[in-house]
Design brief:
1 helix, about 130 residues, seven-stranded antiparallel sheet
């Protein structure tokens, strides 16, 4: 789950690292429902599953790496130029940041949502068009 040099692109630097959960819809990934799945709505996550891991903001992208204690593992990236909107999607006790691209919405449960949003906005602004 920790980043090493091989995870980064040439000249890419890590700007922020946070423990986070990526929210997914189990049905979209061929996963069965948990026994107490119907209770997830009480914490603002109805029909979703939280995949634990780390969220890294780099100079080029958001990178999520799941830890090994999940039913779904791996990593995925969202390149900063593809981000159209970043917003605070918190509800109830769940602190959530939503990232919107032209084709998809990504939601992360993460503490310090306003600071995460501000860091993403700064990184997007700092990108050189080249």
């Amino acid at each position: 789950m920790a980043l090493d040099k091989t995870d980064l692109l040439p000249d890419e630097t890590v700007l922020l690292s946070k423990k986070a959960n990526a929210l997914i819809k189990p049905d979209e990934h061929g996963l069965s429902r948990f026994a107490f799945d119907h209770l997830m709505g009480t914490v603002g996550m109805a029909g979703q599953e939280a995949i634990g891991g780390n969220l890294y903001l780099t100079s080029y992208r958001l990178l999520f790496k799941a830890h090994a204690v999940n039913r779904l593992r791996g990593e995925f990236s969202i390149f900063l130029p593809t981000i159209q909107q970043v917003r605070n999607a918190s509800s109830g006790i769940a602190r959530k940041a939503e990232i919107v691209t032209g084709t998809q919405r990504y939601t992360y449960v993460v503490w310090g949502v306003p600071a995460v949003i501000a860091a993403i906005d700064r990184a997007r602004t700092a990108l050189d068009p080249a």
